[in-house]
Amino acid sequence: MAAMATEDEHLLIVGTYSENLGFVDGKGKGLYAFRLTSSGTFGAATFLNKPLLGNDVVGANPTYLCKSVTHDDVLYVVDESNLERGARVRAIRVDKDACTAVPLGESLATGDSSACHVAATETHVYVANYCGGAEGAGSCAAFHVGGDGSLKSDASEADLLQDASALRRLSALGKFVVPKNGDPERQDKAHAHMCLLSSNGTLLVPDLGADVVWRLNAPSLTPMAVACKCDDGDGPRHAAWHPSLDVLYVLTELSCRLLAFRVCRQTGKPLDKTPFASSRTLPRECYPPSSVNAPPSRPKSTCAALVVHPSGKFAYASNRAIGVDGLVSVISLSEDGAPFTSMHVTTGGRTPREIALVGSDLLLVANQDSSTILSFAIDQKS
Q1: From CA 351, how far away is CA 180, in angstroms rounded?
Q2: Three-state DSSP class for 377?
Q3: 0.85 cut: is pTM over it?
């Protein structure tokens, strides 16, 4: 989801799956657009539920989007598919008033498959590929941004496998070892799940397979070091910065925890080796009995997305429970940034995948398997 502000409302652009990939049975037809008022109410579906851009333009699974840093009418979208040259990424230009969109430049190959996240700076766009390559490990790709916001291919006759200016496979960052107490099905390989930038442009990449967050130079993607080391079996998926403190929050998909690390916001350099605080994202009854200091057990639920409120007082995480409606965890943040899960709110649908803040007053939740989006008003006092 990406919300683009207009004069008195937002235009919400929503990605979808169109294929059955095992973990999702997609029925979408491309990118969709909805009007969202400042109070959180939705207008009628634009084009009467016809897509803003169809699969012929944005690919079979245009799932993750981000806004351009320099052009307020440009979005970047990844196609989470396994094509001959990997997944795809492309720029689109949106007329927010007319509610129309056109492709901007060509669709480019990311070099590996299952592109699951995209992030932008003034000069580059970064894509996380969950898997790919001969060994199936994940990677990160960097693409040059043109003056008009379009993406530029750096493909050469010597390397026709991808269009990126740089491609870094996580398996090349160090000898991969399956976590001792990890999930053998999900953690048999390195898996990039997100690209997060520090203020000086260093790239942080949660690796669900290796239980670490990697630190890479950008845009070259040359390796620097491990920024955060999680416990075996945590499966780090998403990360987010505290708005003012040198604190990085890491959401673990498999153990359903929010970890707080002391990391320099400027450089992405770790200030401590271990998290200084953590909080389970699910109600206590979702976890098997264990002593207070025991490692967390994996419940039959997985975490998906994380956002931190601009006030620095709250964070929100989505939880995908099996067989029941999902939950959003409301997580209070103390003055030093330590998290404490204070409330759980049902999402009214199955498999809440993405969540997004619209300003400081609204939280949007997209239920993947129910094909619904809910808006929640935020009481900034509580």
Answers
A1: 28
A2: strand
A3: yes
E strand or H helix that includes residue 197:
strand 196-197
Phi, psi values for residue 111, rounded to 5°: 95, -25
Q: Are 335 and 316 in contact (CB under 8 A)?
A: no
SS3 state at 126: strand
CA distance 120 to 6: 21
Give the number of residues written for the chain: 382
Backbone angles phi, psi at 89, to 5 degrees: -140, 145
pLDDT digits (tens, 9 = 90+) for 334-355: 999 999 999 999 999 999 999 9
Q: How far apart are CA 380 and CA 382, in angstroms?
A: 6
Q: List beta partners, residue 1.
A: none
The proportion of the chain whose per-residue pLDDT surpasses 90, expressed as a percent, equals: 66
Q: In what order do the strands lie in the sheet with 277-280?
A: 236-241, 247-252, 257-262, 277-280
pLDDT for position 59: 94
Helices (H), the chain: 55-58
- pLDDT of the residue at 145: 97
Long-range own/partner contacts, residues 284-291 (CB < 8 A, 24 or more apart):
286/256, 286/321
CB contact set of 9 (below 8 Å; sequence gap of 6+): 35, 36, 37, 38, 43
What's at 201, amino acid-wise?
Answer: G
Strand partners, 92: 75, 103
Given a cut of 70, is residue 192 above it in pLDDT?
yes
Average pLDDT over every residue of 130-139: 82
Residue-wise pLDDT for 41-82, tens only, equals: 887 655 556 899 999 999 999 999 999 999 999 999 999 987
